[in-house]
Automatic annotation (TrEMBL):
Catalytic activity: Random endo-hydrolysis of N-acetyl-beta-D-glucosaminide (1->4)-beta-linkages in chitin and chitodextrins
Alphabetically ordered keywords of this record: Carbohydrate metabolism, Chitin degradation, Glycosidase, Hydrolase, Polysaccharide degradation
Organism of provenance: Paracoccidioides brasiliensis
Name assigned to this protein: chitinase
EC numbers for this chain: 3.2.1.14
Length: 399
């Protein structure tokens, strides 16, 4: 049984009327109703966590519109860090001022929704890509800045009644930064002890980004490691590829990384450093990377402009785009091929995760004894039978 401080009570149990296991046998396309089953402490528990970025409110997706019944933890993204260590909300209007769901601010909305989903945990994620992580190194290196970091996170925890924090430093690049990262997490855990608070951290799924981090020690201070098993391919590369493959390709003369980097290789590396399996959440992208002008993997890619590499990311709710959904079952990857003109060129080969590949990864999670799945981000998910979050939840809890 996993520690109760890490997971809320399990979402499924025995049918109180029939005495049968709640998940039962599901028809194709059918999802478990997380609100139907009684709670029990005798079944395996898996996390099904999501990131919710504050800018999704501007897409017309307030917290109340999300399928939170399938969600164990919400990582609210993002708070940022000033050079002096002050942790602050990156968009105060979206976070605590905009009228939404009968209150003000998306963060307040999520907290208020806990009356409807009392097992759901809400954590504030600090950092993120680009500007969100640029000050981590200088802050973590300075003792006074670290104390300012602790002071301001404490203020936020009290103000918003948070269940914890997620440190999303992307990513410590040197041994010194990795050591400072460890000390920052240790100081956070001292301030926010378990089981009263949850502390998690997000890490890239590739070994090159993990090699300086002492996972053997760090895992002792966190409840989860959110392993970002995606963005293995994208606009920064000159060949098309799967960006969230679960398994590596056997051979690839065009891209050696495709034979090294995968969700499984990242999990294996982290486990090899002594991290307990139940502390690992495997990341699922709720978006696709498009490679215009290509119709498969390992093809030259120059972007829609012809010579300039341009980022092309498509929310999952808009996929498949221009063609049928297809799968590479050996690699655990989904894709479509789009030859339609989409206001900037043909999307071509689009790599993403589908409900089928998410279920495949959920079975992998159970086989490996991992802690569960997480998704970036729930605001890009589809509804009904196409929902990745619902598909992952259902497969994780089908016995």
């Amino acid at each position: 049984m996993y520690p109760s401080s890490v997971f809320p009570p399990p979402f499924i149990s025995l049918n109180p009327d029939s005495g049968e296991l709640g998940s039962g046998e599901l028809e194709s396309g059918e999802f478990l109703d997380p609100n139907y089953f009684q709670l029990s402490t005798y079944l395996p528990i898996y996390g099904n966590a999501v990131y919710y970025p504050n800018w999704r409110i501007y897409d017309g997706k307030p917290p109340s519109s999300l399928s939170l019944g399938y969600v164990s933890h919400v990582f609210y993204a993002f708070a940022w860090v000033k050079e002096d260590g002050t942790v602050y909300l990156s968009d105060e209007y979206a976070d605590e001022q905009i009228p939404v769901d009968g209150t003000y601010g998306c963060l307040n909305s999520l907290i208020s929704l806990k009356w409807q989903f009392p097992e759901m945990k809400v954590l504030l994620s600090i950092g993120g890509g680009g500007e969100g992580s640029q000050n981590f190194a200088c802050v973590a290196r300075n003792a006074l800045s670290v104390e300012k970091f602790i002071e301001t996170t404490t203020d936020l925890a009290v103000k918003f009644r948070l269940d914890g924090f997620d440190v999303n430093w992307e990513h410590p690049e040197t041994p010194q930064e990795a050591a400072d990262y460890f000390c920052l997490l240790a100081r956070l855990r001292e301030q926010f002890p378990s089981p009263d608070y949850l502390l998690t951290t997000a890490m890239a799924g590739a070994q090159w980004a993990l090699q300086n981090i002492n996972l053997t020690y760090i895992h002792q201070y966190v409840d989860f490691i959110n392993l970002m098993a995606f963005d293995f391919a994208g606009h920064w590369m000159r060949q098309s590829g799967h960006h969230a493959q679960l398994f590596t390709q056997q051979t690839n003369p065009y891209n050696a990384d495709a034979c090294i980097i995968s969700g499984d290789s990242g999990v294996s590396y982290v486990l090899g450093q002594g991290v307990p399996a139940y502390k690992i959440l495997l990341g699922i992208p709720v978006y696709g990377h498009a490679f215009p002008g290509t119709n498969g993997i390992n093809q030259p890619y120059e972007g829609p402009g012809g010579t300039e590499l341009e980022e092309m990311v498509i929310d999952y709710c808009h996929l498949p785009h221009g063609g049928p959904e297809m799968h590479d079952d050996a690699l655990g990857a989904a894709y479509c091929i789009d030859w339609t003109d989409d206001g900037g060129g043909e999307a071509g080969f689009v790599s993403y995760d589908s409900t089928k590949s998410v279920k495949f990864k959920a079975r992998y999670v159970k086989q490996k004894g991992l802690g569960g799945l997480f998704y970036w981000d729930i605001g890009a998910d589809a509804s009904g039978e196409r929902s990745l979050v619902a598909a992952g939840y259902t497969e994780l809890h089908e016995f």
